């Protein structure tokens, strides 16, 4: 099918038949992203042209959850006491490769380490109201830098996430996919698949049972396993690839679930779209040039304030400047 005919056949119709809502349970395991060429188009950097286009247009969905540890075990009527650590914060960011190749990003090359495509992802961040400010020393839930955080009640979090997932698996389907009842292929991207699986199970979300879903654990990427001290540290991988994650005023932003999911997608794009020189530097454990900041201070300074905080303008010394490198952490290159 030509690109033009593909665009014409993309449907915004999200209605599905009863048959589509049924799925056959399957065993899904966390696998390393070793088949990235089947997800991202391969770029010839010398010609600046794509030389291989994947057969499927995946939607990449990064997930991250934070829990609070209950001091006392919960009581079970059917068995021994158990510990229930509720989710207090959830981040989700998604990147639709069909949107990039045939929609808003058509004709846009990935650029330096995929950074020209960063703007096409959609980030979402949820804070559970019941657990707000329980730990005054932990302000990370209020450091979402890519939009406005959404506050939800604990009982509503699972439904809000379910609605996002239900929408994504029907997003941008072609007419033939709608007619045949085919859903979009989804990749759940994590940096710790086990904790994400636990959170999904706790929330009653059976996403991993659906045949159109696979889960990837970036920790199991072999190049990270063999070239980083184990267990792999998320921020060390970001630094090795030159992805900024520290704000001049607030410091490290990756502890916020919403930011972490954005950085995960940036990470996998940057890793795949390194040029030959950058691959050599990565192999030699030498730093790459820092990419530009991907957030603006307004979200941090004005939008997502902790309870009791007031909006505050930055001093000149607190401005994020693209030409100023982030402070190097030598442990990332050990």
From TrEMBL:
A Pfam family assignment: DEDDh_C
Organism in which the protein naturally occurs: Gibberella nygamai
Basic and acidic residues: bias regions: 315-334
Record-annotated membrane-spanning stretches: none
Residue ranges constituting the Gfd2/YDR514C-like C-terminal domain according to the UniProt record: 82-246
Coiled coil segments of this chain: none
Name recorded for this polypeptide: Gfd2/YDR514C-like C-terminal domain-containing protein
InterPro entries assigned: Gfd2/YDR514C-like (IPR040151), Gfd2/YDR514C-like_C (IPR048519)
CC terms in the record's Gene Ontology section: nucleus
Record lineage: Eukaryota, Fungi, Dikarya, Ascomycota, Pezizomycotina
Region (Disordered): 311-334
UniProt superkingdom: Eukaryota
């Amino acid at each position: 099918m030509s690109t033009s005919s593909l665009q014409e056949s993309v449907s915004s119709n999200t209605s599905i038949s009863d048959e589509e809502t049924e799925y056959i349970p399957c065993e899904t395991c966390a696998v390393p992203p070793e088949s990235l060429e089947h997800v991202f188009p391969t770029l010839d950097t010398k010609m600046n042209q794509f030389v291989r286009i994947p057969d499927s247009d995946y939607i990449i969905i990064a997930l991250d959850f934070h829990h609070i540890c209950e001091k006392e075990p919960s009581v079970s009527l059917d068995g021994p006491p158990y510990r229930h650590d509720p989710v207090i914060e959830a981040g989700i960011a998604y990147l639709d490769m069909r949107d990039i190749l045939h929609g808003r990003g058509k004709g846009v090359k990935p650029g330096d380490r995929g950074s020209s495509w960063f703007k096409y992802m959609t980030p979402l961040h949820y804070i559970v109201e019941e657990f707000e400010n329980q730990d005054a020393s932990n302000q990370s839930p209020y450091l979402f830098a890519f939009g406005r955080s959404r506050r939800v009640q604990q009982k509503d979090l699972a439904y809000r996430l379910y609605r996002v997932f239900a929408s994504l698996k029907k997003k941008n389907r072609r007419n033939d996919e709608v007619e045949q009842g085919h859903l979009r292929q989804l990749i759940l991207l994590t940096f710790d698949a086990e904790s994400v699986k636990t959170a999904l199970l706790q929330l009653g979300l059976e996403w991993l049972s659906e045949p159109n879903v696979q889960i990837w654990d970036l920790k199991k990427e072999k190049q990270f396993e063999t070239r980083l001290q184990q267990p792999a540290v998320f921020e060390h991988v970001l630094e090795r690839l030159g992805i900024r994650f520290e704000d001049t005023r607030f410091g490290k932003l990756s502890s916020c679930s919403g930011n972490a999911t954005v950085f995960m997608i940036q990470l996998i794009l940057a890793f795949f779209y390194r040029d030959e020189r950058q691959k050599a530097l990565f192999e030699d454990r030498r730093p790459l040039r820092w990419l530009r900041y991907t957030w603006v201070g307004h979200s941090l300074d004005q939008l997502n304030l902790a309870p009791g905080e007031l909006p505050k303008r930055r001093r000149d010394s607190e401005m994020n400047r693209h030409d100023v490198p982030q402070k190097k952490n030598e442990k990332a290159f050990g």
